[in-house]
Amino acid sequence: MSEGLSRRRVGTPRVTADEADTGNYPGAAAGAAASPGAGENGSPSGYPASSAADDASSTTAKSDKAPLLTLMEETLLLGLKDQEGYLSFWNDSLSYVLRGCMLLELAFRRRIRISKDAFTGMTGISDRPVEVISTRATGEVLLDECLRTLKTSETKRTVASWMDLLSGETWNIAKAGYQLKQVRERLAKGLVDKGVLRTEKRNFLFFDMATHPVQDARAKDEVIVRVLDTLNLPRSAALPTRVAAPGSSPSSSGGAYVGRYAVGQGIGGQGGRLKLAPVSNSRFYRGEDNMRFALLRRVCLVAAACAGSVIENPLTHMDMETRDRAVSRAENLMDVYGHWPFKRDSPLFASEIDGSEAGDLMVEEVVAAVICVLRKMDKLI
Question: Compositional bias of type Low complexity: which residue ranges (predicted)?
Fold first, then answer.
């Protein structure tokens, strides 16, 4: 029996990843009970080291752990007004992007992959169907609901088709049941439960509406810092009108307007290379440098923010030229990682993104498919 368990862990690494996900989120009591050795901060010392097989599985679990904020929540935070607590009324693309972020999260957690068949090599990555490889609960209500929707479908559909159906962008009434409703409000309430936002009521002329202003500014600061790192902008440009950004000196961002910034002053230097520099003393991204796909998650965040028209929100205090160059870099990143295989000859490709295991290619394929669809959003909506 023990031999069978060992063979199961080695042969299907995605199952080990599933076990690593269950204890990272509030409400995942079953996952916590299944891993009694895990520490509160996810450190490797929290796992029992009874054998070599257990040591290997603990290392994999550590590197596969996801941050406390999902890609959907990060994208929503970038578009949310800090004090007002609501999104722009004119943004009609964010809902579609959030559905793509759900597919990305499910791929990072080893729940879905691109199907393999005899015609795989004849079609583009965005035209290949998606299949569910694990139905283990993630601990996030929206992700679990999305996973059930994908699993119960009798027809295999592409990434673009699922994004259409989940967002309700279809004229077929028979397929209206696939739509995930009130995604923005449910994501905001999830952030309230995590202590990032708070709930207030605001009067808009003839009606009252629940709003969700930022409660914990540090969470949004950390998201913005990770976006600026990917766009090769200095961290001191994060929020100069507010408190010092995480990882920057207080003197560099204290006060009102700090000055002009330029693309190339960030951690990538003038060469523009992608580099992973974890946020110091992070609350929501602990041990990010030890997480698998940490840099690729940042690329996905920038791609979602660009496609969802919220990438300029953290850049509003910068001059027009800097903003244009930053958005241009985001579009170039989408061009590099929106193809399969990735454009490895591009200066924006980072060797750290390549997975070290065979199962990592399944994740990268879904990422390429979703970003490919995000690049063509103007033609789809």
Answer: 23-60
